[in-house]
Design a protein that fits this description.
- This protein has 343 residues and is α+β, with helices and mostly antiparallel strands.
- The chain has 3 domains: 75 residues, no CATH class; 157 residues, no CATH class; 102 residues, Arc Repressor Mutant, subunit A, CATH 1.10.10.
- The protein is 52% helix and 10% strand.
- The protein contains 17 helices and 7 strands.
- A 5-stranded mixed β-sheet has the order 3-4-7-5-6.
- Helix 5 runs antiparallel to helix 6.
- The radius of gyration is 22 Å and the shape is globular.
Length: 343
């Protein structure tokens, strides 16, 4: 975590260099093949004389985002196809290594989702169980932007590609469902790249597997190695995770509009509960305090909008109004009724 001039820790900002250069390697390779000017595409990356990337660099989130936008504007929808073809387990680093030693395909994909932020995930990736079919659903967490459609395709294509490279007989998905329409040529190219039919437009963006596919055993399961790579991923997590864990917790609690716990927030952020606690501790915060403050702000807004105490308690998911009043007074120092009458 960055430090200020006095040596004290501060929260990183979008311009802090906290993204490893290898996370950009597929895009850099694509730009070389297309003959794009590397200095125009990646003015923030140091290259050696032979056009090789200087290893070990850490990059800013904001710079990486702009590079992806430049590529997206040059290639249009085909950018998602070209980029999907370049993903491999090596791109996932310690997460890829941890996937290889899991007992089943499903366990490997769960490991990937748990540490998705190590690969720079900007989507909420969640399991959806449905009997004979199981899906991984991608949804945007921090509000729509120009790259949102690309990120959904990219994340789900990365998962499909990683599963295909696992040491097992066949781990291809059943289909890929995408929000929004796809032109015929792009749909065909994407289906060929991912290895399954594309359904678009769909209600949500999902990668769908037969449940029996996820139960297939991997050839080299190793519990000791799996524990080792899990530990390595947890230690590496603070360098790769989004720079403001407190802000993300507040946003999730606010967006949900109801009581959500540590387990659910951790799942949406793609980290373990222990890792979330560590990230918050680095910012001098605790989950209960951050979530409580966010709930209090939501409660105040509802009360000011004219809702009654009982209605607010129900909207926020409290078991009864008494529990809500007790929680409100503990956080605000006054009761909900006193807050309404004083404002």
């Amino acid at each position: 975590m960055p430090h200020d001039s006095s040596g004290r820790r501060r929260r990183p900002e979008p311009r802090d260099k906290i993204v490893p250069v290898r996370a950009l390697s597929p895009l850099i390779a694509l730009s070389f093949e297309r003959g794009w000017d590397r200095r125009e595409m990646f003015p923030f990356v140091a290259f050696e004389e032979a056009s090789a990337v200087v290893p070990g660099q850490m990059l800013a989130y904001a710079d990486c985002h702009e590079a992806f936008l430049r590529a997206r504007r040059r290639l249009g929808e085909m950018f998602a196809v070209d980029y999907a073809r370049r993903k491999s387990l090596a791109f996932l680093g310690v997460v890829g290594l941890g996937m290889l030693v899991q007992p089943t395909v499903g366990a490997a994909l769960r490991f990937l989702l748990e540490f998705a932020s190590l690969a720079g995930s900007v989507q909420v990736l969640e399991w959806e169980l449905g009997g004979e079919e199981t899906a991984i659903v991608a949804s945007d967490l921090f509000g729509g932007h120009e790259l949102t459609p690309f990120w959904k395709v990219d994340h789900l294509a990365t998962i499909a590609g990683a599963a295909e490279q696992l040491p097992c007989d066949d781990a291809r998905p059943l289909r890929l469902e995408l929000e929004g329409a796809l032109p015929g040529p792009i749909r065909g190219a994407m289906a060929l790249a991912i290895g399954c039919p594309i359904v678009a437009p769909a209600e949500r963006s999902r990668l769908v597997y037969r449940t029996e596919t996820l139960l297939k055993p991997l050839r080299f399961p190793d519990a000791v190695a799996a524990a080792h790579w899990r530990k390595a991923a947890e230690l590496e997590l603070p360098r790769f995770s989004s720079p403001d864990a407190s802000r993300q917790v507040r946003r999730i609690v606010s967006v949900e509009g109801r009581l959500v716990g540590r387990q659910e927030v951790s799942r949406k952020l793609g980290v373990s509960e222990r890792s979330l606690d560590r990230l918050l501790a680095r910012e001098g915060a605790r989950f209960s305090d951050v979530a409580g403050a966010s709930r209090l702000e939501t409660a105040k807004a509802l009360l000011l909008s004219g809702e009654t105490v009982d209605e607010t308690a129900e909207r926020l998911g409290y078991s009864d109004a008494r529990s809500f009043r007790r929680a409100f007074k503990r956080l605000a120092g006054i009761s909900p009724f006193e807050f309404k009458t004083s404002t």
